[in-house]
Amino acid sequence: MRLKLLFYFWAMLGLFACQSAPDAGQEAAEVATDTLSSMPQPAAQKPLPPPPPDYDTAAWTEVARLDSSIVIDMKYATTENFVEEKMYDCSRCFLRPEVAKAVVRIHQRLQKQGLALKLLDCFRPRPIQWKLWEKVPDPRYVADPREGSMHNRGAAVDLTLVNAQGEELEMGTPFDFFGPEAHPSYTNLPDSVLANRATLRDAMLSEGFHPITTEWWHFSLSGKNYALSDMLWKCY
């Protein structure tokens, strides 16, 4: 009889332990969760601010600082230009402050149409103009650096249009194409190309930019006499 009672006692004790074990494990898990939730969480990392300007901000504006969504593809920082030689050490677009702000306004209006500006050349330092002149001393294609161009004054831009995917719209010729097909007056082109050129032209005219007769991509802001500049920018 005593053995039966002892066996019954140990059986009940084991049953009680099996029933209470999950509760103990759950309690331990809840304690661990509460401990983790009470621990201080690492703060989200903020994006690093851009470095301070390394140029005279009273005289110049770097367009990317005004609106980083503008596509900057300075062709003279590559070999994709008419001299097939890299002229700029890096691709940075500088303009006079008034000119840069006008370009950004145009870009932001075009964005509402699903389009955007792509800048191909901006301020061109006069030392670079001299290099171009030495390679192609022809005033039909390169301004004499002694007189300088609107690019050398920071008042001209070479640019095109891109769609929402960043793809260039068809303009009939590539940048730096020297021939009648690149002239804004040339009309023997598909209607879609003529429409793209008209969209770019109208957008630039709306802010006081003026085209030239030989290049669909070139526009300058007139009305103010900016000085020629030899400023050379640094590369990060």
Walk me through the structure.
With 236 residues, the protein is of the alpha+beta class. It has a domain at 61-221: Muramoyl-pentapeptide Carboxypeptidase, domain 2. The chain has helices at 2-38, 63-66, 97-111, 126-135, 191-205, and strands at 61-62, 71-72, 94-95, 115-121, 156-163, 209-211, 218-221. A five-stranded mixed β-sheet has the order 2-4-5-7-6, with helices on one face. Strands 1-3 form a two-stranded antiparallel ribbon.
Q: Which architecture of the domain at 61-221 does the CATH hierarchy give at level 2?
A: 2-Layer Sandwich
Note poorly predicted spans: 1-22
Number of β-strand runs: 7
What is the helix tally? Answer: 5
CATH class of the domain at 61-221: Alpha Beta
Order of helices and strands: HEHEEHEHEHEE
- Gross morphology is globular
Helix content: 25-40%
For the sheet with most strands, the description reads: 5 strands, mixed
Q: Determine the N-to-C terminus distance.
A: 93 Å
Biggest sheet, spatial arrangement of strands: 2-4-5-7-6
Structural class: alpha+beta
Q: Quote the CATH topology of the domain at 61-221.
A: Muramoyl-pentapeptide Carboxypeptidase, domain 2
- What would you report as the Rg, rounded to the nearest angstrom? 33 Å
